[in-house]
Design goal:
- The complex is a heterotetramer of chains A (565), B (173), C (429) and D (180).
- With 173 residues, chain B is an alpha+beta fold.
- Helices cover 44% and strands 10% of the residues of chain B.
- In chain B, strands 2-1-3-4 form a four-stranded mixed beta sheet, with helices on one face.
- The longest helix of chain B is centred in the C-terminal third of the chain and has 22 residues.
- In chain D, strand 2 and strand 3 form a beta hairpin.
- By secondary structure, chain D is of the alpha+beta class.
- The chains are: A alpha+beta (565), B alpha+beta (173), C alpha/beta (429), D alpha+beta (180).
């Protein structure tokens, strides 16, 4: 839930009483949402805060003083309303709904992916009856039907709450799902030759309160109660959708969206959700490599610290021989703000103005999917990973390498570079004879061409922050334990900077928290930002700045130094 | 692909538009017309065209087709004979009537006779309770106070009518 | 014996479908009176004062319903006329549509005058092909004669009537289900609020009335509310068309004042039972309404108050009679099956409850039920009553549930005997 | 950890027990002696009444309540009954079960692609059996599972499968448990 509660302001406040507790709410808001906002549980199936009200499951019935029970989801609150959610009449109505929903629901919880996060299971314990009064055969329907390329449908489990139907008509606006038939033959379906296939289709599995719609990717993969979930941010574009990463034995099992009304509401795109294999598949680079003259065919693996020394040596000698501007640095928008800040520091240590972050771009859809296909392109700009005075931008650096002006190319994240640049320009740059130092987490066409290969880490192994396209700074959290002995990209930069400065690299550990403190001090808009202040939902640039301190009369000098934060 | 909806049918549908503030309201009427044109059912290919005509998504037409009992998404016999089996008709012998009808035609509900001429079905109350039992033919005509003995005569009459229509079709063709 | 009163229908086999026939029987006189000499408010007051109650089943005051329309001048405003007569046992509106369609058109015209209506849509059930053609012809005739169209009867009012066909769904007789269907959607009832008077057809103010209710309007306006109130009983004024079906000698429709004893309708107008038979059960208002035992049926008068006191409702005045050969469990199965078939599938209780009731009723008939199952039936009906968007769930619960309550011994006999004691003698379902 | 030595007052204990303990010792010895001589006599005359089971040449029939190693029920078609629901994995207090579920084309769409029990860790508590909603994992009467390596204490699905008819007694016992 978004922050609110205490500081909430109402235009037309009314006072209602729920189970004897007085609650102030906005006139006309629906009772169910008011109750949920105030931590009062009213069970419900068809209601979803981001969809229109359907009012058909009848689970949220409460006593409001009217002769009949009212459905809380469609009852506007009015001043003086007294609500009872606990009486025997309400309990009986809920018991009735539960029993009626269950007479035709299959008892296949043991093979249902929803088990463990299923409304039907939870409410059955909370509000249902212990025994079954019918033994007659349950309704048959299609099972594990691929209703779309990324969603599996089990008709028998469906309770016809129509959340998915409303999702495809109101959110994705693709209208693939409808209820066909009438009465107890009603079922969710698609039109002939029009499967559930849109960029947001797996959200239907998230909002399905039961196991009727399931993500094909997660199907039969892991019981949800084994998942360790970490709150983080999706790295697939600059929207910065808030997600939870579900891990099992240090492997990502799934990504699911988490609610942030300022960013992704409660949705995420299918691409982002399914784009995580790179963190754990065979394309991950784990070993540091230094290629000399004599490696003849074998891959010369060295300890990472050795590779760092070698890389620093090459950078130093190139700078000494050809000037610092002969070094070109291409960073990555996949890194955290803190890492990018250290990248900028590293570039300053090298002394080259030729620094840039190539940003891969693609289609935007006006909803969640943004054109910038990395999470932190905005952060890279904010952190100053941009060409210095007279420096070259990404294409300039590639052209410089092709022309022989750039003698050493330091590339972070080759896949970003390749996606953002013209293939011929990259090839020409490589042909130009520059030494390639590659810091990367995954195999690419450039991997084999690097003189020094420094294995990096991926977002899910890091702590830090991303700045999304509209300048919202959000926390990412480590969910996966990185390989022993590896450094995150920020750690590689701090060590290289130390090596260049001639200090002890082992003392140059990267500390995301401390770096953020430094960013907060030095970079506009980030003032006041700490991990705690960002919380789980993030803060927009400028919004964390502490309120201007009141004049301090007790100060001996009479006034505080007028240093901008 | 060539359009499936005949031009005459299209015109008939379009002629209904002025009656309503929204084109969508013509949907049920359009489906009735389509069913009349295609011998009692709504072929799959017509749906996208009806949808386009009414500025709807095809799925919005499908959900309506599947909701209403009078619309058939599968072929039925050219004479679709249905017996009301609600309470008032059952009180006056609708069930034996239905059974006899199935015997005479050799089909069960949901089946079509081999020559494609007849299919049978049960139907909910047709509003003919005072003249029960009632038999409905092709969503159109009611036959009221039908006794078991009336059935063979009724079927003969229907067969003759189909023959006449066939002859008419041939002479036109 | 109470005389049949011919307010709605011509007598005998007469048919006033043609405009000429209708006009020669005081046709459109009321419309002329209203449009040319009465203010809309006065017409509304007259209808309100007449005590006319809706004839569609719920029995709500027609005048009151009209007065719920907002006074904010929002246009267009519509009449949705409910001719989706699908309640089993009911066939009264069909008589008006087939034999006196201009009566309905005139009623609509007066209602339009009283409520500043722009158009009326008559939603007729799809199966009524004959009545549909008949009404469409009548509407065309009326339009040609200037009763519909622009500046009707010089009053300055523009108004037209359109006839719309449904497609076989009982739920479209529910007022908001009807509106959904008329707009070209599935006929699933809308949740309230908003109410149809404020946001009905195409989100515009809409008044919705049954065919018979509308057909009563002309003679109320013509002869006055006092005259109308004098017919029937205090809170059940006027006549209605009682449809009698089932095991009587002369099933059919009888237009009688409200408050006629049920016994008189069955035994005098409808010719009584077959020789040698005695009465077993009577449903007084269509299968939605609680059934009456023979003893109860002999006592009641057919008006709203008396029937309510007797534990049932007038509904559509559709009387279904069962004699002593009839197995009440079978009747309950037929009713449960109907509601299972016709539940729109929106609300949990109705969608699942109607199916479960039907299964349980069948198991009673098959002899596989237990006494606990009879209690379960009772509890399911309590889950279904008053807990859903529309009243179909209540109807389903009442229609078959009250059979168990009022004929418990018959149901228990099925349980004890392991099957139907009337096997071979009772009707088949 | 430092060791603390406690002095035990045995004299006091003996005093507390008193002459009673001497009688108890005598009773016990007499029973032992009686059995010894009876068995000796039986052995001499060729009618041994000895109660000792000569394991491993002999074995006892264990009662159905006996909890040996957990095994998987194999159905008549040769497949496991297990649907990889993971409840035993969750219930196991020593984390000795690990399952990798997968999908099949069978009527029940889910099965354990991998089902491993680390018998080196298993403590025979039977919670897996209790948690199982499918009667797919039961405690067998098997206890001889010693192995020469750590690796050999890891039992895989194929090793764990036991035909359902050989587990009938235990399954019946389990079902009686539900009824209670």
């Amino acid at each position: 839930m978004p922050d609110g509660g205490a500081g909430q302001k109402f235009e037309n406040p009314v006072t209602i009483t729920i189970d004897g507790r007085e609650i102030v709410a906005e006139q006309g808001d629906m009772l169910l949402q008011v109750a949920l906002d105030n931590g009062i549980e009213i069970p419900h199936y068809c209601y979803h805060p981001k969809l229109s009200i359907d009012g058909s499951c009848r689970m949220c019935q409460v006593k409001t003083g009217a002769p009949k029970l009212a459905i809380a989801c469609n009852t506007p609150v009015a001043d003086g309303m007294e609500v009872d959610t606990q009486s025997e009449e309400v309990a009986k109505a809920r018991r009735g709904v539960m029993e009626l929903l269950l007479i035709n629901h299959p008892l296949d919880c043991p093979i249902c992916d929803q088990a463990g996060e299923c409304y039907l299971q939870d409410y059955s314990y909370g509000y249902g009856r212990a025994d079954a009064r019918t033994t007659s055969p349950r309704r048959k329907g299609v099972k594990r039907h691929p209703i779309g390329p990324r969603v599996v449908f089990d008709q028998e489990r469906c309770i016809l709450c129509r959340r998915c139907v409303r999702f495809t008509s109101e959110i994705s606006k693709t209208n693939e799902l409808r209820v066909f038939g009438i009465g107890d033959h009603s079922h969710i379906g698609t039109a002939p030759d029009a499967p559930l296939d849109n960029d947001y289709s797996i959200n239907t599995a998230d909002i399905c309160p039961v196991g009727a719609l399931l993500s094909s990717d997660f199907h039969h993969k892991r019981r949800v109660w084994f998942l360790e979930e970490t709150q983080t941010v999706c790295p697939s574009c600059s929207k910065g959708c808030n997600v939870k990463v579900g891990m099992f034995k240090n492997e990502i099992q799934r990504l699911v969206p988490r609610r942030n009304d300022e960013v992704n509401e409660t949705w995420m795109c299918d691409h982002g959700r399914l784009h995580y294999a790179f963190a754990q598949d065979e394309t991950r680079l784990r070993d540091a490599v230094v290629r000399g003259e004599s490696s003849n065919g074998t891959v010369p693996v060295v300890p990472l610290d050795k590779a760092l020394e070698d890389a620093a040596g090459r950078i130093k000698s190139t700078a000494d021989e050809h000037g610092a501007a002969a070094v070109g640095i291409l960073g990555s928008g996949a890194l955290t703000n803190e890492e990018l800040y250290q990248l900028a520091a590293f570039a300053r240590a090298v002394g080259t103005p030729n620094v840039d972050v190539p940003v891969p771009t693609g289609e935007a859809d006006g909803f969640l999917i943004q054109a910038e296909k990395v999470a932190n392109a905005r952060g890279a700009r904010e952190m100053g990973v941009v060409p210095g005075d007279g420096g070259k931008d990404a294409s300039g650096i590639l052209a410089g390498a092709a022309a022989g002006d750039i003698k050493l190319l330091y590339v972070v994240d080759a896949r970003s570079l390749l996606a953002a640049s013209d293939a011929e320009a990259v090839q020409a740059a490589l042909d130009g004879g520059a030494t390639l130092i590659l810091q990367d987490a995954n195999v690419s066409e450039l991997t084999d061409k690097a003189a020094v290969l420094l294995p990096g880490q991926v977002w899910v192994e890091k702590d830090g922050t991303f700045t999304n396209h509209e300048g919202r700074v959000q926390r990412i959290r480590r969910a996966m334990t990185p390989a022993e002995g590896s450094y995150c990209d920020g750690g590689i930069f701090t060590r290289l900077s130390a090596l260049l400065a001639g200090t002890d690299p082992s003392a140059a550990r990267f500390d995301a928290r401390a770096t953020l403190a430094e960013i907060a001090e030095k970079i506009d808009g980030y003032a006041g930002m700490t991990f705690e202040r960002l919380g789980s939902l993030g803060v927009k640039l400028g919004d964390a700045a502490p309120a201007p301190a009141p004049a301090e009369p007790e100060s001996e000098e009479g006034s505080a130094p007028a240093e901008p934060a | 692909m060539a359009p499936v909806l005949p031009e005459a049918l299209r015109e008939r549908i379009v002629a209904e538009f002025p009656k309503y503030p929204e084109k969508r309201a013509v949907l049920l009427t359009a489906l009735h017309f389509t069913q009349e044109t295609f011998e009692g059912w709504i072929p799959k290919e017509t749906v996208p065209e009806i949808a386009a005509l009414l500025e709807l998504e095809p799925i919005e037409v499908w959900e309506v087709v599947y909701f209403y009992a009078m619309f058939n998404s599968e072929p039925v016999g050219r004479c679709h004979v249905r017996v009301c089996t609600n309470l008032s008709c059952c009180l006056r012998g609708a069930r034996p009537l239905m059974r006899r009808l199935e015997e005479l035609l050799g089909v069960r509900p949901g089946e079509v006779t081999e020559d494609g001429r007849f299919s049978v079905g049960e139907v909910e109350c047709l509003g003919s309770c005072g003249t029960a039992p009632v038999v409905q033919i092709n969503n159109e005509v009611y036959r009221e106070n039908v006794g078991i003995d009336d059935l063979p005569g009724l079927l003969d009459e229907l067969r003759q009518r189909l023959d006449a229509r066939d002859a008419e079709g041939e002479s036109e063709g | 014996m109470t005389e049949e009163l011919r307010l709605l229908l011509p007598s005998g086999d007469e048919n006033w479908s043609s405009l000429a026939d209708y006009e020669s029987n005081d046709g459109y006189a009321a419309a002329k009176k209203a449009l040319q000499s009465m203010k809309p408010e006065d017409v509304l007051e007259e209808v309100k004062a007449s005590g006319l109650r809706g004839r569609g089943g719920a029995g709500f005051s027609t005048g009151m319903k009209w007065s719920f329309l907002p006074k904010d001048g929002r246009r267009p405003r519509y009449i949705a006329c409910n001719a989706d007569e699908s309640e089993p046992g009911t066939f009264k509106d069909r008589q008006i549509l087939e034999r006196n369609p201009h009566k309905l058109i005139e009623g609509l015209l007066i209602a339009a005058w009283a409520n500043t209506i722009d158009a009326a849509y008559v939603y007729m059930r799809g199966e009524y092909r004959g009545p549909y053609e008949n009404l469409v012809t009548a509407v065309d005739e009326a339009r040609a004669a200037g009763y519909l169209g622009k500046n009707i009867l010089g009053s300055g009012m523009d108004f037209d009537v359109y006839v719309h066909r449904g497609a076989g769904a009982y739920i479209c007789g529910e007022e908001t289900g009807l509106m959904e269907s008329l707009e070209g959607r599935k006929g699933q009832p809308r949740k309230r609020p908003p109410f149809p008077a404020v946001s009905g057809l195409w989100k515009q103010p809409t008044v919705i009335n049954n065919v018979e209710s509308m057909a009563h309007v002309p003679h109320i306006v013509l002869k006055g509310s006092e005259w109308f109130k004098a017919i029937g009983k205090e809170k059940s004024t006027g006549t209605t068309i009682f449809g009698v079906s089932g095991q009587v000698m002369k099933p059919g429709t009888y237009e009688l004042p409200l408050g006629v004893p049920l016994r008189e309708i069955i035994f005098e107008h409808a010719g009584g039972l077959r020789p040698g038979r005695s009465l077993k059960a009577v449903i007084p208002g269509g299968v939605s309404m609680p059934v009456l035992t023979a003893d109860m049926a002999m006592e009641v008068d057919m008006d709203h108050d008396t029937l309510q006191k007797a534990g049932t409702l007038l509904g559509t005045g559709a009387i279904i009679v069962m004699d002593d050969t009839s197995c009440v469990v079978r009747a309950a199965i037929a009713i449960a099956r109907f509601f299972r078939h016709e539940s729109c599938g929106q609300c949990t209780q109705c969608r699942e409850g109607t199916g479960w009731l039907h299964k349980l009723m069948k198991s009673v008939e098959a002899g596989t039920a237990t006494l606990e199952d009879l209690d379960t039936i009772d509890e399911i009906t309590s889950f279904m009553e008053g807990h859903t968007i529309c009243a179909l769930s209540d109807a389903a619960a009442w229609g078959s549930g009250w059979f168990v309550r009022r004929f418990r011994s018959d149901f228990e006999a099925h349980v004890h005997q392991g099957g139907c004691p009337f096997e071979g003698t009772s009707f088949e379902i | 950890m430092a060791v603390r030595v406690v002095k035990v007052d045995r004299e006091g204990l003996a005093k507390a027990a008193g002459p009673l303990s001497a009688r108890a010792i005598a009773t016990g010895l007499s029973i032992t002696a009686r059995h010894f001589f009876r068995n000796l006599w039986g052995w001499i005359v060729g009618k041994p009444t000895i109660a000792t089971v000569m394991y491993p040449e002999e074995d006892v029939v264990k009662p159905p309540a006996f909890r040996g190693m957990p095994v998987l029920v194999e159905m008549d078609n040769g497949k496991e009954r297990c649907v990889a629901c993971g409840l035993c994995e969750w219930a196991c207090p020593v984390d000795c079960i690990s399952i990798t579920p997968d999908e099949t084309e069978d009527a029940i769409e889910r099965y354990p692609q991998v089902f491993d029990i680390d018998m080196g860790r298993c403590m025979y508590c039977g919670l897996c059996e209790e948690a199982c909603p499918e009667e797919a994992i039961v405690m067998s009467d098997r206890v001889e599972i010693a192995a020469f390596s750590r690796a050999a204490t890891l039992w895989h699905k194929d090793d764990l499968l036991v035909p359902v008819d050989r587990l009938a007694r235990r399954l019946e016992y389990v079902r009686r448990g539900y009824e209670r």
